[in-house]
Design goal:
Helix content: 40-55%
Strand order of the largest sheet: 15-14-13-10-9-8-23-24
CATH architecture of the domain at 501-742: 4-Layer Sandwich
CATH superfamily of the domain at 501-742: Ribonuclease Z/Hydroxyacylglutathione hydrolase-like
Number of strands: 24
Number of helices: 28
CATH class of the domain at 501-742: Alpha Beta
Oligomer: single chain
Strand content: 15-25%
Shape: globular
CATH topology of the domain at 501-742: Metallo-beta-lactamase, Chain A
Distance between the termini: 56 Å
Largest sheet: 8 strands, mixed
Structural class: alpha/beta
Radius of gyration: 29 Å
Length: 756
């Protein structure tokens, strides 16, 4: 067993460099590493085999990463003709595909791409093969401190490219068997209120789950039950085993193969994984089931930790890029937490020996308490919050989903086309879900936002279990107290009242949102964009403020365009007393016109534009504000254009000098006139722009104009969130992409700077 643990650890260590490598080496370097591993394997030393395995796994991981980067470097920048197989589609404009042929050449392994906002000329379903002319773009994620890392997620999903479909022609019309099955189930359940949840549990298709249902699941901490994951695959394996046992009872003894239930369990798990579309959590669970089958067939009795290590190893060898997946590490920690909990805090003897109607509920409570305590660190880090009602909600939801809903769904999938029987089973599934969601709706709002101060404190659950089991509270009471106080220090630490302050330009795509931070309070300049079903405040601004434990006090809306005011309503719902300034003369808005001055947290705000009369609309009506602490001056310009820039300069040339300027109108050629740049005479310019925007912003000529005037250029498309740290007369601009780099998966993918 010691050899097994050593080999597994060696394989895992060999894959982990993908998490922190700055660049992926070329094929020659990978080949040299592979040959060196073979050479080390020939050395007769106990440690040589472990080192050789680490080097082999490292070369395999590097090769996998290199293969996924090749299309990024060679297929982008121009329209290409591909043949692609549809993996998933909402039937409208959101499609996940695999490229199987590029310009007549077979692509192996097939490369995953995603296309959004692209309508296909004919009806579309999974399994169809299409010939398309597409414009491929490297994946590019918005990067904000504490935000979702969509770029890393896309690479973990093997989707390094997005596609804009120029033209398309369907080659094969027939849908895959899974898609046909899905269509039949959609028809059978179309009249049921919880059809979306049923499709999520049966096929992993979550497009039908309403926002209200998603929010209820999130608030109650039960969202994990509605996505096909390890628990669901394990349930399918258990049902398969039971079916195998029933078949054994139907045959005479001499025809019974004693291992048939084992194979039936793996077969059932495989079918359910296929129904889920082969999503990564389901595949990882299937690998675990296969390992369990192997162990049972071999008659081996491994410990939980040995099986855990073996599963991690096999998953990473199967797909090294899984190491980039947050859901993978959440699963790893969840299983480790269960093993740790039952070893260190086993079920008390009086519960284990109690009657079954006492034992099972108490055992479930014991399990849920362990999961709640031990998964806190990752929940805080990934989800930035916890559900205080999760314990109560899961006590009902876990048994209902595990022993009623999922088994009924699996039975219904078999009998869907059977007259009246299939309809009745699906109705029973819907009634069960109705019971669940009704119960969840009766629970109080349980979601609690948690900021980054609680990261260290979230580890206290693990430490408490260790302290209790080792009785350290008796022998080292003072040490325990000091340890717990050290974890609590970030939470109870008082805000410093010093001269420092920050200006943060958030990476929100196309739009503008600048957070001025001092003494834990925030003054916001613009509220970002909005779109059907969401806005920048919900997606970025509010989570960012919550994660940093900041309170929003005031906001300026520079002008009426949606990409600058889109998140305002969401901000007002979150902070009803928010004081708003703007030149819009809207009800409840304070003025933001030329000559207005005010102070906030010791900072002075002076409005340079627009004049109160005549009232100006659009970009040239943007509220231009100078922010200063008496030493450093920052000019915020909104979308002001050249005409207004020149008018603003008349008679006020000397008053516009600033150290840093927010680039007007996202770097458009209609703004940033040379006279303005000379009048400001700053050292740095920072621009809010999105990659691949339709207007090709920022303009290359504008960037060059700033650089020729001696400005250092920054933009969010290149740098992610931009933070200006100011202390007395010293300031420094930090790029979040640079802070989390060097990481190969955070680089600016693609060789062109063109934002088109």
């Amino acid at each position: 067993m010691r050899n097994l643990i050593g080999l597994c650890c060696s394989a895992i260590i060999g894959t982990l460099p993908l998490l922190w490598l700055p660049v992926i080496p070329g094929l020659r370097a990978i080949a040299i590493l592979f040959m060196a591993a073979l050479g080390v394997a020939l050395i007769r030393h106990p440690l040589a085999r472990y080192l050789a395995l680490s080097m082999l796994c490292c070369s395999w991981a590097l090769f996998s990463a290199r293969e996924i980067l090749i299309p990024v470097e060679g297929w982008t920048g121009k329209p290409v003709v591909v043949e692609a197989v549809i993996n998933r589609s909402d039937g409208k404009q959101d499609h996940e595909m695999q490229i199987v042929s590029m310009a007549g050449r077979i692509v192996f392994p097939a490369l995953g791409i995603r296309s959004q906002s692209s309508y296909l000329p004919d009806s579309v379903c999974a399994g169809q093969r299409w010939r398309m002319k597409v414009y491929l773009r490297p994946v590019h994620g918005q990067l904000n401190e504490g935000g979702f890392d969509s770029q890393r997620y896309a690479l973990a999903q093997h989707q390094p490219l997005s596609a804009r479909i120029i033209s398309a022609q369907r080659i094969t019309q027939r849908c895959s068997l899974r898609a046909q099955w899905l269509s039949v189930v959609e028809t059978a359940t179309q009249a049921l209120p919880y059809q979306g949840v049923i499709l999520a549990l049966a096929f992993g298709e979550r497009y039908g789950v309403s926002d209200e249902q998603k929010n209820m699941l999130r608030q109650s901490g039960t969202a994990h039950l509605m996505a096909i994951s390890g628990m669901h695959i394990s349930l399918a394996a258990m049902i398969g085993w039971l079916m195998g046992r029933l078949l054994q009872l139907a045959f005479p003894a001499h025809r019974i193969y004693f291992r048939m239930p084992l194979f039936a369990s793996v077969l059932a798990a495989g079918i359910y994984t296929w129904l889920a579309g082969g999503n990564p959590p389901a595949v990882r669970a299937l690998i675990g089931v296969v390992i369990w089958l192997f162990l049972r067939l071999q008659g081996r009795n491994w410990s939980g930790w040995e099986v855990w290590l073996c599963c991690i190893t096999c998953i990473l060898i199967y797909d090294p890029l899984t190491v980039l997946s947050d859901s993978f590490w959440l699963s790893v920690l969840a299983v480790a937490a269960l093993i740790f909990w039952y070893q260190w805090m086993p079920l008390p003897r009086y519960i284990a020996t109690a009657k079954w109607f006492y034992r099972y509920p108490l055992a479930l409570i014991h399990l849920q308490i362990g999961i709640m305590i031990l998964l806190l660190p990752l929940q805080v880090l990934i989800f930035h919050g916890i559900s205080v009602s999760a314990l109560l909600a899961n006590l009902l939801a876990v048994p209902l989903i595990s022993f009623v809903v999922v088994p009924l769904i699996l039975v219904a999938l078999v009998f869907t086309s059977t007259p009246w029987l299939g309809e009745y089973i699906w109705w029973s599934v819907d009634r069960s879900l109705t019971l669940l969601f009704t119960a969840l709706s009766l629970l109080p709002d349980g979601w609690l936002e948690v900021d980054k101060r609680f990261q260290a404190l979230s580890l206290s659950g693990w430490l408490a279990v260790i302290i209790h089991r080792l009785s350290l509270w008796r022998s080292s009471c003072l040490s325990v107290i000091v340890l717990m106080l050290s974890l609590s220090t970030p939470v109870i630490r008082a805000e410093k009242k010093d001269n420092s302050w920050q200006v943060n330009m958030l990476d929100i795509g196309h739009g503008l949102a600048i957070a001025i931070v001092r003494h834990g309070k925030v003054f916001l300049y613009d509220a970002g964009n909005a779109w059907p079903g969401g806005d920048a405040a919900q997606q970025v601004i509010i989570p960012w403020l919550r994660w940093h434990h900041l309170s929003l006090e005031q906001a300026i809306i520079s002008h009426e365009h949606l990409d600058h005011r889109g998140g305002l309503l969401s901000l007002q719902r979150e902070w009803p007393t928010l004081k708003i300034r703007s030149p819009l003369l809207w009800e409840g808005h304070h003025s933001c016109f030329q000559g207005d001055r005010w102070q906030w947290q010791g900072l002075e705000f002076t409005v340079k534009w627009p004049p109160a009369q005549p009232l100006m609309k659009g970009n040239n009506g943007s509220c231009v504000v100078m922010v200063s602490d008496g030493n450093v001056r920052i000019l915020l310009t909104g979308d002001v254009e050249a005409e207004a820039e020149l008018a603003m300069l008349k008679g006020r040339w000397g008053t516009l000098h600033a150290d840093i300027i927010q680039v007007p109108h996202h770097g458009s050629r209609t703004s940033s006139s040379a006279p303005l740049l000379r009048a400001v005479a700053g050292s740095a310019a920072f621009s809010s722009s999105s990659r691949y925007n339709a207007w090709h912003l920022p303009s290359a000529k504008v960037v060059q104009r700033y650089q020729l005037q001696g400005y250092k250029w920054y933009d969010t498309a290149q740098s992610g969130q931009l933070t200006i740290d100011i202390n007395s007369d010293k300031w420094q601009i930090n790029s979040f992409r640079a802070q989390i780099s060097p990481r190969w998966y955070h680089q600016w993918f693609g060789v062109s700077r063109d934002n088109g």
